[in-house]
Amino acid sequence: MKISMRFLLLFWAVISVQEVWAQRITPDVANVEYANVDGISLKLDLYLPKNVAKPYPVIVWIHGGGWVGGSKENPTAASMALQGYAVVSINYRLSGQAIFPAQIHDCKAAIRWIRANAVQYGFNSEKIGAWGSSAGGHLAAMLGTAGNVDSLEGTVGGNLQFSSRVQAVCDWYGPTNLPTICDFPSGIDHCALTSPEALLIGGAIKDNLAQAIAASPFTYVTSNDPPFLIQHGTNDMTVPFHQSVELDSALQAVGVNVQFQPIANTGHGGGGFAADSTRRQVSAFFDRYLKTPTTGVYARTDNASVGGFRLDQNYPNPFNPTTTIHFALPQRAYVLLKVFDANGREVVPLVDGQMNAGEHQVDFDATGLPSGIYFYQIKTAAFSQTQKAVLWR
After folding, report:
1. Global confidence as pTM
2. Which of 12, 201, 254, 270 is deepest in the core (most CB within 10 A)?
């Protein structure tokens, strides 16, 4: 299949603008392989903050290019390293190498790699945001809405003991609902066999509707999705503006904290995205959700119950080398149960998924960990509590 030269020029023009915005900041660590799939080396670059205490909040940049081109080089997000963030710019398999869901498998692998290597590089594994433009915006949004979708997790890169969920998403003009993308004016025939969406899913949208639905962030929206910032040019003739309207409406309908900012008189990746006002919105958004202690360990050690949710003291405590954590759920819920060290660094995730109502107990094996104080934290959409545990050898 051939791609029109006009389409390629549109997307490569966007990529060129993004390179200028990146201010040509040099990565501190370049070309780290986070996975290798069928001989394809997937790499990332690290831009680390200076004179900032560890652990660093993380922003993952996902490049655009219609899923057919683009690169991790010179990411738009690089300047966020000057604001105290570790920026991780990733490559992923393009549609000419593999069709969906390969791309989201790769992005999830990168998130797991970040958590697996948090201690080495000083990452805060509880504060990871995703930011992308165009096709990268689509994949950032997928990370946000499909964080708990097993069929999209994949096994790329291993590290499967770590979560691939993110805590905040900035989506710049990404496709969000492929089955409706043809319903609105565009300079691209998105329903053609040669469209970027067709190349992504392996065929024209109208002939592969199930695959188009599966490749849409809109499909997976739930109330436990992370906060979103959506920015889209009102004059975008590449990805219809209404794609972001649909995602914003779906997120609002289930109560997700979402900010939708139309960029007036701006096309696909146009100059409005380089404006100081736009970039300040992005910085303020990530600062709010990745720099504030909203999800970290906090010193609450009572056995309070909220709405029937309960986290009990572990037994035994002190313990050596195993202990059992008890909790109760009044209804089926998505549960995160994690153990942290005394510095608030994640040690191990114990639960990351849906659990039924009722009493539960989870064993924590601390074999290999040093003696000291640890915290275990349970979180649902309605409840969060932390307890202290002492490992004594």
Report:
1. 0.72
2. 201
